[in-house]
Each structure stands twice: as C-alpha cells, then as structure tokens.
Design goal:
Strand 2 (124-134) and strand 3 (137-147) form a beta hairpin. The strands form two sheets. The protein has a six-stranded antiparallel sheet with strand order 1-2-3-6-5-4. Strands 7-8 form a two-stranded antiparallel ribbon. The chain is an alpha+beta fold and 250 residues long. The chain is built from nine helices and eight strands.
C-alpha cells in the first residue's frame, strides 16, 4: 500500500470503488472486520476507521456489532470529502480542477468569524481568497477564513496548489463534518474581475463551517459560483442523508 496516504483512506478508497462498481449490491453485507483486516494486511482499528469514512459518506449502515450493509443508491451520492474538496469533486467527473490563490491575509477576526470559528474576539486568523477553475474556465471564487495555526499552513502553500484540503490532511488537519447554507448573492467587483461576469450578476453562494473529529471549527468559508456551472442536490432517507454537488446546466 502507498505510504503517502493513511492506510484507512487506502482501504476506504478500495471499498468505495468496489461499491461503485457494483461488487456489493444494495442491501449486501460487507466482509467482517477481521476478514477485511486480513485482506488488506492492516489492523482492525484501521478497518474501523475506513468503515467510519464510508458511513460518513452515506455508503454503508452505521450499526455496531454487525457487518455493514451497503445502502441502496448510495454509490451515486456525493461524498462529504468530495463536496468539501473542489478538486476531488472535479476529478470524479473527469474534469481538470485548477486553483489560483489571489490573497492570503492575516487579520484580526471579525465578530462573525470569531463566532463561527469559536475564537476570542479579535483573535488572529488568515483569510484566503482563491479562484477555482474547471478545465481552465473560472467557475467559483472561494473565500475561506482559518484559525491561525491552520492559516499558517495554507500561507506556506504554492499559489497554484490545486487542493488545499489534501495538503492540510497531510499535516493532520481533518475536515469531518460541516454545516452548509446555500443561497444567492450578487457579484461584487472582486467577483466580477475573477469570474469574468458583471458586478451585480447573481451568483450561487455556499457558506460552510467545517469541523475536525473533535468538533473544533477548522474553517469558515464562502464559495460563490457562476450560475449554470454547478447544482446542489440533497438526498434524504431513513438510513442516511447526503448533500451532493453536480455540474449545472445553462
């Protein structure tokens, strides 16, 4: 197995691919934890982490003490990791993701930033602004605010780094939960310049607060998309729910 990625992610990725390929149909049970541990040459703890990742993606049931059951239709849903990571989502569709950091600015947190990041008023944060592209075409302006320790990691990245999420994961910063608010906002002058639209043009906005496994906020972000470039879907069921992002249509 690759040493560049945590073992549980390698196991989860292999199982996710198998589910998507139909090797485990709707309602089928995955192999037992000890069998998976032997198959991949890892500990049962690593297997449990992998299964927890699949559960977070809405792919399998979360019952303890029983073999996980594959949820019907779940393989077509957008995983949380892909929803949070623009690069992963784009690649899953065969698109080439791109990114260019426009600004990284250390600053004192506003009242809103302090509230969402659970920081003291005026705490030092880093505001990061990027333009994101799909196969070379600008589609979204990303504005993220990070606590100081995470912002310093982002500030050290190359301006054309495609995936901040992946780089942060390599430093042990995990994004495991998020609250999303989606609405419409009018483009300001900065949006117009970066996206090639006119000021006042309606944009799809996604505001997001992401937390780590301990529930601590690690990001407060606002993404603004050109209309017709993406659409968001919500899937609800008694067993699981998932929020997904897909390519939009003009």
């Amino acid at each position: 197995m690759s040493s560049k990625s945590p073992l549980y992610r390698v196991v989860a990725g292999d199982l996710r691919t198998a589910i998507a390929a139909g090797e485990y149909g709707s309602g089928a049970r995955l192999p037992a934890e000890d069998e998976l541990a032997r198959r991949y040459g890892v500990s049962r703890g690593t297997v449990r982490q992998a299964l927890a990742s699949l559960r977070a993606d809405g792919l399998v049931t979360s019952r303890r003490g029983a073999r996980r059951v594959v949820l019907g239709g779940a393989a077509r849903l957008q995983s949380f990791a892909e929803l949070r990571s623009f690069a992963r989502w784009a690649r899953s569709l065969g698109e080439e993701p791109g990114g260019r950091t426009v600004a990284v600015e250390p600053a004192a947190a506003t009242d809103e930033e302090a509230l969402h990041l659970q920081l003291p008023a005026g705490a030092r944060v880093f505001r990061v602004r990027r333009v994101r592209t799909l196969s070379g075409a600008p589609v979204m302006v990303e504005r993220s605010t990070y606590p100081e320790r995470i912002g310093e990691l982002v500030a050290a990245m190359e301006v054309d780094e495609v995936s901040h999420s992946h780089q942060l994961e390599l430093h042990g910063v995990l994004f495991t939960d998020a609250q999303h608010t989606i609405d419409v906002v009018l483009a300001d002058a900065d949006d117009a310049e970066l996206l090639g639209c006119r000021a006042g043009h309606a944009l799809l906005r996604e505001r997001r607060r992401s937390t780590d496994p301990a529930g601590s906020p690690v990001e407060w972000s606002e993404d603004r998309y050109l209309p017709g470039t993406v659409a968001f879907t919500v899937h609800n069921s008694a067993a699981a729910g998932a929020l997904g992002r897909q390519l939009g249509e003009e």
